[in-house]
Write a structure and sequence with these properties.
With about 400 residues, the protein is α/β, with parallel strands linked by helices. It has two domains: about 5-55 and about 300-389, Aspartate Aminotransferase, domain 1 (Alpha-Beta Complex), CATH 3.90.1150; about 60-300, Aspartate Aminotransferase, domain 2, CATH 3.40.640.10. Helices cover about 35% and strands about 20% of the residues. The protein contains 13 helices and 17 strands. A seven-stranded mixed beta sheet has the order 4-12-11-10-7-5-6, sandwiched between helices. The protein has a four-stranded mixed beta sheet with strand order 1-2-3-15. The site of pyridoxal-5'-phosphate has 15 residues, from helix 5.
């Protein structure tokens, strides 16, 4: 099939929720993708921070092949080994409580929303509220959409679930004032990804922690994009001096396979009881086996140190480019504001030049290269991108 054939099928049969670029990828290996004509691309987006271990990492492919050949699915009515081992590793790497598995990021946040609401009801709060930051992205299911201010269009998708309170992302006093007796939780992405890589200041994170401590509300970090080494720490919060009560993960966790997780502190290990939550596919043995292989690659101090070093160097070089107004960078999570706008044109020109990047808005380019990338490949990507900025 030609690219035009695929476009015709997309046009005829697929709901038009995505604006797709005119390329068909047929193969991936490490930091590279190949299109149907055999042209090679350097991937500085990794499917939005999913393929952090690179495309088709041999250990992930082997884990999936091996598990798929033995047992793919049983439901959560029974035990299998990979998700039990994965739960232990995720909890031990972070908050030390318990894990709920699901199939995506939005579902991980759905779990967190249900959990903090149940915790609030147990504290006698009848109409629990969740405080979210302006410009946050927590997902596109109905509840997570209600917690995603820029997309929560009541006029298109209403009635949306109640109980979400929005505060500016850079005003600690407004945040403290919004947290009160009805607050179940504050939800924060330590670095807001979808809006163009905006790190939340330590003052905001500390204000959130203090307000939660004062009222008994819970602090939840959405680490779906920032987690698993992306910022140069295994979890972004580990470099920030503020520890949440629960966190959510997805994206890079499955190395390309769909899996999400919600992880709690020990204090919250028994909030859910049997019957409170569930999902048919969640934490299946194939995706969990893939995730265990991913953690073997990413949970590595030497790799995390390199992510910080490569990110800083790339950020510095980008700041020196003439068309660049601002660069925001944490590890290999990079947002570039262009002084002249035209970010979608840059994305197309980069694709033409063999580099995959993404625009989060009319004037912002986002880079999320694989974390296993070499310094030479980072330089190569920069050389391709810089003339286009
Ligand atoms: C991608 C993302 C989500 C949603 O994850 P899906 O797997 O697309 O449902 C939620 N929060 C953050 C911070 C994300 O980056």
């Amino acid at each position: 099939m030609t690219l035009q054939d695929l476009q015709a099928l997309d046009e005829a049969w697929v709901m038009p929720t995505y604006k797709r670029l005119p390329v068909e990828f047929v193969r991936g290996e490490g930091p590279h993708l190949w299109d149907a004509d055999g042209k090679r691309y350097l991937d500085f987006l990794t499917g939005i921070s999913v393929s952090s271990v690179g495309h088709c990492h041999p250990a992930v492919v082997e884990a999936v092949r091996d598990q798929a050949g033995r047992l793919m699915h049983t439901t959560n009515l029974y035990l299998t080994e990979p998700p039990m081992r994965l739960a232990e590793r995720l909890a031990m790497s972070s908050l030390g409580g318990r894990v709920f598995f699901c199939n995506s990021g939005a579902e991980a946040n759905e779990c967190a929303i249900k959990l903090v609401r149940k915790h609030a009801h147990a504290r006698g709060i009848q109409r629990p509220e969740i405080v979210v930051l302006d410009h946050a992205f927590h997902g596109r299911t109905i509840a997570t959409l209600a917690g995603t201010p820029q997309l929560a269009r009541e006029d298109l998708f209403g009635p949306l679930p109640e109980g979400f309170v929005v505060v500016p992302r850079d005003d600690p006093f407004a945040l403290e004032a919004a947290v009160g007796d009805s607050t179940a939780a504050v939800f924060i992405e330590p670095v807001q990804g979808e809006c163009g890589v905006h790190p939340i200041s330590c003052e905001m994170l500390e204000a959130a922690r203090a307000a939660c401590n004062r009222t008994g509300a819970l602090l939840a970090f959405d680490e779906i994009q920032t987690g698993l080494g992306r910022t140069g720490r295994f979890w972004a919060y580990q470099g920030l001096g503020v520890t949440p009560d629960l966190l959510t993960s997805a994206k890079a966790l499955g190395g390309g396979m769909p899996i999400g997780a919600c992880v709690t502190s020990p204090e919250l290990r028994d909030v859910f009881e049997p019957g409170d939550h569930g999902s048919t596919f969640a934490g299946g043995p194939v995706v969990a086996a893939a995730a265990l292989a991913v953690l073997d690659v990413l949970d590595d101090e030497a790799l995390l140190t390199r992510v910080r070093e490569l990110g800083e160097k790339l950020g510095e070089r980008l700041r020196a480019c003439s068309g660049v107004a601002e660069v925001r960078q944490r590890g290999l999570m990079v947002g570039i504001d262009l002084s002249g706008g035209r970010a979608p044109d840059v994305v197309l020109a980069a694709l033409e030049a063999g580099l995959v990047v993404n625009a989060t808005g009319p004037a912002t380019i986002r880079l999320l290269p694989p974390l296993v990338i070499t310094p030479e490949q980072i330089d190569e990507g920069f050389e391709l991108l810089a003339p286009l900025l």
